[in-house]
Design brief:
Elements: H1 2-21, H2 26-45, E1 55-56, E2 65-73, H3 78-88, E3 93-97, H4 99-104, H5 106-114, E4 118-121, H6 136-151, E5 159-160, H7 171-177, E6 181-183, E7 187-188, H8 197-206, E8 213-217, H9 229-240, E9 244-245
Parallel strand pairs: 1-6, 2-3, 2-8, 2-9, 3-4, 5-6, 7-8
Helix pairs in contact: 1-2, 8-9
Length: 254
């Protein structure tokens, strides 16, 4: 698919040149030149766009079940408290961890697994601003360095989530070669930019559906008023509506 976007981009430039030679209106020329690139950029930057990589945003279920995912850990302050909170609600979650942080806190990785939760790959350095245009070598390094850090703790991962859901031209082939599948979300909590835990919970509850994937975060980047509290309110709301937090089987993904 990435090659198709490249072909369309080149075709657009050729078409723009032909239109220019034929003295057609500048708007037509600009459209032919720019639109294919804008289309490709959308599929790189939009978290749910499928053009450059297959992204799973829901899972199949007939029950009141959701998949809770927690990004950016492990965090020495938040992770232990989150694990206790999940235990109290009999909830399971997937922690999409950053490789560097996993290497710094192997005991937290082991504890996540011991408590019955799952791990996902969230790159090695979380390069939010540069991942979308990273070179093939940089993409491989982000994947392999994190995999090495996780395997050093005895953990195995099959899920991958790019930083902020932003993909890369070379990502699909790199994931396939490593047996990783890309997971997005259907409910974005916006806890990373909100200041009110009640607003975060209301946003999640308003979009709640069976098979939804919820993304939340941990760590010092969160507003102190949100750390743990937003997740606690969300878990309470899920319990009131009889929704269970489960770890879906790969066969359920869609």
């Amino acid at each position: 698919m990435a090659r198709l976007f490249l072909f369309l981009s080149v075709l657009g430039k050729v078409l723009a040149l032909v239109l220019w030679i034929r003295h057609l209106p500048p708007l037509f020329i600009a459209g032919a030149f720019i639109l294919p690139d804008l289309f490709a950029l959308y599929h790189l930057l939009a978290p749910s766009a499928q053009g450059f990589c297959r992204v799973f945003t829901r899972f199949e279920t007939t029950r009141s079940e959701i998949w809770l995912t927690i990004d950016n850990g492990p965090d020495e302050t938040d992770t232990p408290q989150i694990l206790d909170l999940l235990d109290r609600h009999c909830a399971r979650a997937t922690f999409f961890v950053i490789g560097q942080r996993a290497a710094q806190h192997p005991a937290l990785i082991a504890e996540i697994l011991r408590r019955g939760h799952d791990l996902g790959h969230h790159t090695h350095t979380h390069p939010v601003r540069t991942f979308w245009f990273a070179s093939p070598a940089r993409v491989r390094a982000e994947l392999d360095d994190a995999l090495s850090a996780l395997r050093a703790t005895g953990a195995q991962v099959g899920w991958f989530r790019p930083p902020v859901g932003i993909k890369n031209f070379f990502l699909a082939d790199a994931l396939s070669a490593r047996g990783l599948r890309c997971v997005g979300w259907s409910i974005r909590s916006y806890d990373s930019i909100s200041r009110d835990p009640q607003n975060v919970a209301r946003r999640v509850m308003a979009q709640l559906r069976p098979g939804a994937i919820i993304v939340m975060h941990e760590g010092e980047r969160l507003d102190p008023r949100l750390r743990l509290r937003a997740l606690e309110i969300v878990l309470d709301g899920l319990a009131r509506r009889n929704f269970r937090c489960i770890l879906p089987d790969p066969a359920q993904m869609r």
